[in-house]
Design brief:
alpha/beta; five-stranded parallel β-sheet; 38% helix; 11% strand
């Protein structure tokens, strides 16, 4: 346990430094001081969404048991709460952020660069009262699968004003538990 705490401390410091650089603040941190060159007085609250791709795009979320023998994965039905289509992802991100007045979404994901660009385009295409929703991706695609990136992303999500989590993912469950512990037992995260 002591070794794990030593490992988490520098990872949390890197994640916190990234939040400062992006001018994003923790959920209850309305007076985070910024650098001397910064015009803003406070950090912006943000939505953090766990948008799982990779292994979740194949067998993990397949709910079409009758078609399990179907070799063409595109004809299978996927559980949107587990693996989200671009259209569903964009609409849900806009809906959850809009309901909470959030204008920035940090996406914790193992998506490729192409998937990230497609999500950004899909979110931009969904109109919501003319408001913009800026997407930020914490970890670059080349760090996908590293323990350090995963722990840092969990820390970034744990500090968010609100989270959109994947009910089938242990990564999301860990964020949910961190948030519950931080707020004394009640967390009102949303689920895909």
């Amino acid at each position: 346990a002591v070794g794990a705490r030593r490992l988490r401390a520098p990872l949390r410091e890197r994640a916190s430094a990234w939040l400062d650089a992006e001018r994003l603040g923790a959920a209850d941190d309305e007076s985070t001081p910024r650098g001397e060159d910064d015009d803003s007085e406070t950090a912006a609250p943000y939505l953090c969404a766990h948008w799982r791709r990779g292994d979740f795009s194949t067998a993990m979320c397949d709910v079409s048991l009758a078609a399990a023998h179907e070799p063409d994965a595109e004809h299978r039905t996927r559980d949107e709460h587990c693996w989200q289509s671009l259209a569903y992802s964009a609409a849900r991100l806009r809906s959850v952020a809009g309901a909470r007045g959030l204008r920035v979404a940090v996406i914790a994901t193992d998506a490729t660069q192409a998937e990230r660009a497609a999500l950004r385009a899909a979110v931009d295409a969904v109109a919501l009262d003319g408001a913009t929703l800026a997407l930020r991706f914490y970890a670059p695609p080349e760090t996908n699968g590293t323990v350090a990136a995963a722990l840092e992303e969990q820390h970034v999500c744990a500090l968010a004003a609100h989270c959109l989590l994947n009910e089938r993912s242990s990564f999301s469950q860990r964020i949910y538990l961190q948030r519950r512990r931080a707020v004394g037992g009640s967390d009102h995260s949303s689920w895909w």
